[in-house]
Amino acid sequence: MSFRPDFLPFLLAIAAASFLCRMGGFWFMHFVRVTPRLEAALKATPLAVMIGIVTPVAARGNPAELAALAVIAIVMRFSPSDLIAAMAGVAVVAGVRFLSA
Amino acid sequence: MDNPLPQPAAAPPPATWAGFKRGFLPAAALSPGNFIYGVAFGLLARQETLSVLEAMLMSVLVFSGTAQLTAVSAMSHGYVGFDAIASITAAILLLNARYLLYGAALWPWLGSAPTHQVVPTLFYLGDASWVISMRAHAAGERDLCYVLGAGAATIAPWLLGTLTGSTAGSLLANPAALGLDFLLVAFSASMGIGMLRARPDWASAAAALVVSLVVDRLAPGGWTIVAAGIAGGVVTYIRYVPK
Q1: Domain coordinates of chain B in residue numbers?
Q2: A47 and B205: CB-CB below 8 Å?
Q3: Which residue range(s) make up the domain with A32?
Q4: Nearest residue of B to residue A4 by CA position?
Q5: How far is A6 from chain B (nearest CA, A)?
Q6: Among A1, A81, B145, B181, who pairs with B19 as Cys (CB 3.0-4.6 Å)?
Q7: C-alpha Rg value of chain B to the nearest Å
């Protein structure tokens, strides 16, 4: 059990960001209305962020990661569970690394 | 466009133990998934050099799976200094921008409740507990503690999973062999496919893709995520066609 003092600003910043998002929408409703246009834009950001996470890894083109992304797409085709698909992808990365080690 | 602002009832909503239990039960059914997700986060946190205490604090204070995975995955680029903290904070603001909508949608229900009840209710809100609550509200549920109960049911498995994963991670010789550094990418890919299937917003997705390729080439690191998120949101905002 240890806690690094230099980790504290990082932890507090992400906690504050998370807190702000949770309280912000509710608080803003005191003053403004979420227009359908703004609502559509807010709904679109998580997918865009996830594309921003996946793209750099895919662009690097390592076989283990590319194979895993293909497996995730296939699993998602047949199962609605993103947890199962993600775990299958992690298993593929681990498997390919094990075989090529 | 001109439908009136939904207003909360003048009287504060009821807040009862029975309501808490009504919300707790349907959300508790999702515990196995939350536990496994927590274990995975705990293992990755250990791999990225977080102590068990640090991982647990993060799960208590942030309480958001994707945000925590993003933060922990970014720590290998550094976590000290303005640039590292600013880029990850911006990324999490975008990643959790959907909570702005969740909160706004709960306004007609919780708007007249006292602040000391609203803050914990919103703080421990998650994607699943929000969906469950909104469904219950449509079916006539008005008890504030329903939302709190649904959120509470997801806290225990998340913390227990974090504790299990981060403790187990300390015992593993080579956690990288488990492929957990790929966890965030794996979750992003599978959730992204699910989102595209539910709402195929291809223009927004294409903008995010192009921007991430460019920014990743110019300035690799946390800002790629931020730029992609803004690009996707802006394109959707501009292209929006009122029905």
Answers
A1: 17-181
A2: yes
A3: 5-100
A4: B54
A5: 7
A6: B145
A7: 20
